[in-house]
Amino acid sequence: MLPECLHSPVFFAFQGKKWRLLFTHRVLLSCEALTGVDMLAANLGNPPAALVRALLFCALERAGAGCTIDLVGRLITARSLRSIRIVVLEAWRASMPDPKPAPAKPKDPRDSDVGPEKLTWMKAWAEAVSQDGLGLSEEQWLEQTPRQTGALEDLLLEQRQREELLCGIIASTMANYGHRAPDKPRTSESFMLHPFAKKKPGPVTGDDIQREMRKLRKA
Amino acid sequence: MEHKALVSIDDSGKVTFHLENDPQTYVLEYSFNELAEAESVAQTNLLQAVSDLRTMTAVQMRGLLYACLRTAHPQVLLREAGDLLSKDSPTVSKALALVMGASEEEEDEKEKPAVAPPVAEAASN
Asked: Which ipTM value was assigned to this complex?
């Protein structure tokens, strides 16, 4: 299956076989139904016992291991608890998208109060299956991990940003060279609905110092 | 007050204790299923409590006692677990610490576990 090829493998030995653990949207929905925990906002830093048991059970069920949640609970003994937690966390990391840098702050101060919207299952589904979004079928989306969907969303975002930048170049040119041009020229990026993410400042190198020295000499 | 005489442990890791002026004998047993199910009743994270017994809160302690009692005493209520702690907190705490420690020791002694321990494997090129 494709998800297995795309993710780093995490195995769990059970009944003499090794089972590959992955958390697809279907697994996460099953887990949420079992525990009541919002799996889109779940923090596995300090998971409750019910969540660890449900995650392992749902992932094993997806892998095809015939088991019950009670049997999975009996597997988790005081000694094996630590290693099982590590395996579940590894599988979680493999299935979830990498943390993204924060988007640039909007130029309009009226927008600054609005924080990032909380992701709900409805929004995640709509973005995935909408023709303006990823255009996936429901089945495709359910069988994907959030990491896969995240990779597709990144591509979609790049495409949107490219289109918005082109529109922004036209809009900023009109604004800056129009009758009532602003004192401080508007940038193309200031017209973008999805601004580029802030780049993390890297370590200061010798080249950076030389560049700054050249600027000083010219000044 | 001598607590040692009130708490005992058998080969299977079950901890038995009784309290002064209480004819009932209580049996504590580690079960992850009971821990998971007790979390919704106790409204607390019991896995966190198991990870570090020294820093657990009163709510977690009551929940952990409730979870450990449930195998041998299925009819026990969360409130009754709290009452036991009120009666003799040192004895009950000692029994809890013993059942958690014993569960780990019991597992260590098993030469061939029925279920192979889980393994996380890195991608091999």
From this structure: 0.74
